Amino acid sequence: MKTQKTTFSFPAGTTKFDRCEIWLSDYLRKSPAPVKPMDVITAGENAGYCKAMIYRAHQSLQDHIYNTEGKKAPSNFWVWKE
């Protein structure tokens, strides 16, 4: 999958976790198709977030992120839902 390059300007006092949540929601919203979790992790690491933080952000946003096959299924994809 082609890496999406996104630049944000965050207000002062925004935590790195908050920035990760914003990045993850934006990344999935802009994705034209469902994304494999490891592709999200790779893109997130390239954006400066560690794997654990991305998974915590995923958990925090669980009302908006749909797992197509269940969390641990090898064929799972992440999809943003409003």
CATH class membership: Mainly Alpha
**CA-CA gap between termini:** 23 Å
Q: Going across the major beta sheet, what is the strand order? A: 1-2
Roughly how many Å is the radius of gyration?
12 Å
Unreliably modeled segments: none
CATH topology: Arc Repressor Mutant, subunit A
Element string (H = helix, E = strand)? HHHEE
- Coarse morphology: globular
For CATH, the homologous superfamily is named as Winged helix-like DNA-binding domain superfamily/Winged helix DNA-binding domain
* CATH architecture identity: Orthogonal Bundle
Q: Can you give the helix content as a percent range?
A: 40-55%
Largest sheet: 2 strands, antiparallel
Q: What is the overall pLDDT average?
A: 91
**Which structural class best describes the helix and strand composition?**
mainly alpha
Count every helix, treating DSSP H or I runs of 4 or more residues as helices. Answer: 3
What is the number of strand segments? 2
Give the tally of structural domains. Answer: 1
Q: Please report which band the strand proportion falls in: under 5%, 5-15%, 15-25%, 25-35%, 35-45% or over 45%.
A: 5-15%
Describe the structure.
The chain has 82 residues and is mostly helical. It has a single domain (16-80), classed as Arc Repressor Mutant, subunit A (Orthogonal Bundle), CATH 1.10.10.10. 43% of the residues lie in helices and 7% in strands. The chain is built from three helices and two strands; from the N terminus they run αααββ. It has a two-stranded antiparallel sheet. The radius of gyration is 12 Å and the shape is globular. The mean pLDDT is 91.
